[in-house]
Amino acid sequence: MHASEVLHDNTKALLEEILGSSKAYIKPVVEEKGRMFGMFASDGTQLASFDSYEAAYSAARIFELDAVALH
């Protein structure tokens, strides 16, 4: 196993522990930079912000999380 695979597996496990599931919730948010898309854990904790829905969705999929769009 390569170091990048170990990092990916460890990061995925950590994210699932933080999220409480394998789901990442994505919804529009307003920040100082304007309209962004936030990625949230099931308890409502914001994990990250992205410039587009596609970027947030891609980030979730990289770690094999199920992206759920919220409006």
Can you describe what's shown?
The protein has 71 residues and is α+β, with helices and mostly antiparallel strands. It has one domain. The chain contains 2 helices and 4 strands, in the order αβββαβ. Strands 3-2-1-4 form a 4-stranded mixed beta sheet, covered by helices on one side. The longest helix has 17 residues. It starts with a helix and ends with a strand. The mean pLDDT is 80.
Defining traits:
71 residues; globular; 4 strands; single chain; alpha+beta; 2 helices
Care to give the gist of this entry?
The chain is an alpha+beta fold. Helices cover 38% and strands 35% of the residues. The protein has one domain.
pLDDT below 50 for ≥5 consecutive residues: which ranges? none
Q: What is the strand content?
A: 35-45%
Q: Could you say which structural class the secondary elements and strand pairing correspond to?
A: alpha+beta
Strand arrangement in the largest pleated sheet: 3-2-1-4
Determine the number of helices (DSSP H or I, runs of at least 4 residues).
2
List SSEs in N-to-C order: HEEEHE
Strand tally: 4
